[in-house]
Amino acid sequence: MENYIVSARKYRPGTFASVVGQDAITSTLQNSVRTNHLAHAYLFCGPRGVGKTTCARIFAKAINCKDLTPETEACNICDSCVSFNENRSFNIHELDAASNNSVDDIRNLTDQVRIPPQVGKYSVYIIDEVHMLSAQAFNAFLKTLEEPPAHAVFIMATTEKQKIIPTILSRCQIFDFHRISIDDIISYLEHVAKNENIEAEPEALTIIAQKADGALRDALSIFDQLVSFGGNNITYENTLENLNVLDYDFYFRLTNAFLEGRITDSLLIFNEILNNGFDSHYFISGLNRHFRDILVCKDHSTLQLLEVGAGIRERYKEMADTCSTGFLSDALKITENCDISFKSSSNQRLHVELALLNLCRITGLPLDNEAVGAEEQQTEDHPVIEKKTEKKKEVPEKGDTVDKAEESAKTDMEEDIVTLDTTETVTDEQKPADKENKKETVTNKDVIAKEKTVDGPGMTFSVKETLQASRTRRDEGQEQEDEPGKIKEEPEVAAKGEEKFTQDELEEKWKVYAEQIKEPYPRMYSTMSSQMPVLKENYFIEVKMNNFSQETEFAREIKQGLLNFLKKELQNAKIKIGTVIVSEVKKGKKPYTQEEKYQYLNKKNPNLDKLRQQFNLDFE
User: Fold this and answer.
1) Which candidate, 160, 162, 157, 165, places its Cα nearest to that of 139?
2) From 2.30.110.10, 3.90.79.10, 1.20.272.10, 1.10.10.10, which CATH number describes the 248-360 domain?
3) For the segment 36-89, what is each residue's pLDDT rounded down to a tens digit?
4) Best-predicted range by mean pLDDT among 112-121, 447-456, 505-514?
5) What is the C-alpha separation between 327 and 337, in angstroms, rounded?
6) What is the DSSP track for 350-368?
């Protein structure tokens, strides 16, 4: 029976050209051999499984070769190369510093260095895991390392360069090996699978490369494990099952549930993940990475940062088109906070489930359990429009004055008045003349303001045209459900006029509208009260926001209604409103979010943070 050799040993590179993912280092070593510019000490640093010891052996073999190839590779024919290949070379010595880390071991090495090589030109000493040497051993090695014999070359390898004393580092040429990329590992695994007549799905090899975390040796070991598990056919499902990796499909299903506000489905999917044996902390960290990958796909220039297979990359592209940048930003904050405070939570499952609930609330859509009974509560939650019998309106003659036109418009407004329920503020001019007429229930997103068009300067709002257009859309079946994560804005009303106004007049109307939304939108009332607008050129109004969440809520709740109100009251149809997020909370500005309030109080009293940690408190 033939002895089995693991792939990590069987396919270990034997030439500079076969080293994977370290082109800059191998090119430098080849040039030094070609030009005979050899240093007396080298230090190879980097994570495990990236080729440090392998490159040390190839380099040691090349500098003793008597007949190098034109590509500066060892010939494998001369006596030095043959003895090295048969593991009987007396010129190349390997020392494991993990088990030979005392002063006596270094003293023996120093005595051995004095002996010149029997065959070849150099005696090469490869010291692996050199950081394991004791401080006394390092000091004993200093003199020999600084002034070795002309025939001695030291090649040291380590995974923890920071543990090596600076006096050693200053005497060496240092080469930093980096982690091998996902694509390079996949290509090498495909090469191995082809030579071994093994069928492997590209998605399965991608999972192996990700699991290896940049170490080719680990990837080959996992490859052998899967071959033992599934024979000569490595599938994506077998790889997930054997390596206990969470399938991407779970994350995509959860993202769709978050966008649609389906909290029940989110909790059920999370329970399914737990039943499959996955840890909650592993899940939440993977979900955080999932949102990061979607954000990376929003721009084609950053697609190279996504380390997944081609099939999974296409799914990420489709999901990136569905998710807004604001949604992904808020989702990353929620998952990151959950990940940070996971270990300190007393009920870790509930801690994750609360994060899922917050993710479902990002889009602002009603949750699935909130939709139950919504029709029964409609008359309590939404304003009611009281309709009057439509009468023929008198249009002012061309020669009428502005006062007469406004008086006529006011009379017509009283005929088509809008009455609100107890949740809305109604002025005396807006009270209905006849309360016995039928009432029609509308949603909050229907138009409440009205417009009356008259000849002459100024402009008001007409409710008939707006309501008629709304009914026409409903009759024709043109109203569609909102896209997930997309804010449905209030329709912009037609406006006329271009009256000039001042900053003071703007602030006065701003405060009036803030009072009108005080009860239905208390958070927006607080925002408008604390943030006065700034009038720019061309009637552009700039509104400052403290953060993205505040800006999103402003756009969703009141922006269009505020714009319509200002156009009417200031008699200017060219008014535009824009928001700008202040990057830092200025001194004296009122904190908005719970975290900002906590940070504000913590600056005043640092003991507050100790109290929070002692009693395991949260912001909310």
Assistant:
1) 165
2) 1.20.272.10
3) 889 999 999 999 889 999 999 999 999 988 888 888 888 888 888 888 888 888
4) 505-514
5) 16
6) HHHHHHHHHHHTTT-PPPT
Band the pLDDT of 153: cuts 50, 70, 90. very high
265: Cα within 13 Å, side-chain hemisphere: 17
pLDDT at position 493: 56
Please tell me the class of the 503-581 domain. Answer: alpha beta
Share of the chain above pLDDT 70, in %: 76
Q: What is the 3-state secondary structure (H, E, C) of 237-274?
A: HHHHHHHCCCCHHHHHHHHHHHHHCCHHHHHHHHHHHH
Mean pLDDT for 468-492 is 45
Please report, for the chain, how many H helices and E strands are present, in that order.
26, 12
DSSP H or E run through 464: helix 463-475
Q: What is the DSSP letter of 428?
A: G
Closest CA to 294 of 252, 258, 259, 253: 252
**CA distances, 230 to each of 188, 207, 311, 406 (Å):** 20, 15, 22, 84
Q: What does the alpha-carbon distance between residue 517 and residue 564 come to, in Å, rounded to a whole number? A: 14
Delimiting residues of CATH 1.20.272.10 domain(s) in the chain: 248-360
According to the CATH classification, is domain 182-243 in 1.10.10.10?
A: no
Largest CA distance in the chain: 119
Local confidence band at 175 (pLDDT 50, 70, 90 cut-offs): very high
For residue 37, the SS3 value is coil
Q: Which two tokens stand for residue 110?
A: 């120093």
7-176 placed in CATH 3.40.630.10: no
- The residues of the chain that CATH labels 3.40.50.300 are 7-176
Indicate the pLDDT class of residue 592, thresholds 50, 70 and 90: low
Say if strands 540-545 and 534-535 run parallel, antiparallel, or are unpaired.
antiparallel
- Sequence ranges of the chain with CATH classification 3.30.300: 503-581
* Residue 494 confidence class, pLDDT cut points 50, 70, 90: low
Instruction: Dump pLDDT digits (tens) for 403-440.
Output: 444 444 444 444 443 333 333 334 444 444 443 443 44
Distance CA 305, CA 291 (A): 13
**Nearest CA-CA partner of 105 in 116, 117, 93:** 93
> How far is Cα of residue 362 from the mean position of the Cα atoms in its chain?
15
> At 619, which amino acid appears?
F
Question: How far, in Å, CA of 63 to CA of 74, rounded?
Answer: 8
